[in-house]
Every structure is written in C-alpha cells, then in structure tokens.
Amino acid sequence: MTWFTGIMVYVILWWLVFFAALPFGVRTPEETEVEKGHATSAPVRPRLWLKAGVTTAIAAVLWAGAYWLVKSDLLTLSGG
To answer: Is residue 55 within 8 Å of residue 18, measured between CB atoms?
Structure first.
C-alpha cells in the first residue's frame, strides 16, 4: 500500500464512520423549545466535536486492520 492509497483508505473510513456516528445521542427539541426559523428536527446538542474525535480513533483502528490485511497479503488493492 502506497502512502497515497493509505491516506485515501483512511479518509474513506473516516467519513463512513462519521456518517454512521451522526445519529447517536441526537435529541430533538420539545415543541416549546423550538426557536423561530429553526427546523423542528434539528438536534439540540449535536456534539460534533466529540463525534469527530471518536470517529478519528475508530477510523485509525480500522485503518490499522486494513493495513495489516494488505501487508499480510490477505487482501490486495491492486487493479490487476
């Protein structure tokens, strides 16, 4: 795995994990808490920084597993 492929695999894993983590812990506001001009489905506290940090750690572990698979020749990323 080249360094470019490694970075691209990490970026793809990061976004997959991030989108999977977005719905966790989301709470919509009560009807009386909604401010004018805001969507009623918008989360009260999305905690995006926490989700981004957890995503970074999980993606790093998954990337290490993918790197091990490629280096042990159990998985190849070559097109041929």
So the answer is: yes
Sign, CA torsion 42/44/48/53: negative
Asked if residues 69 and 75 have their Cβ atoms less than 8 Å apart, the reply is yes
Contact present, 59 and 13 (Cβ < 8 Å):
yes
Query: How far is 61 from 78, CA to CA, in rounded Å?
Result: 22
Tens digits of residue pLDDT in 4-62: 999 999 999 999 999 999 999 888 887 777 778 888 888 888 999 999 999 999 999 99
Q: For 28, which DSSP code?
A: P
As given in the structure block, the two tokens for residue 28 are 């919509």
Model pTM score:
0.80
Alpha-carbon distance values, 48 to 29, 39, 73 (Å): 17, 18, 37
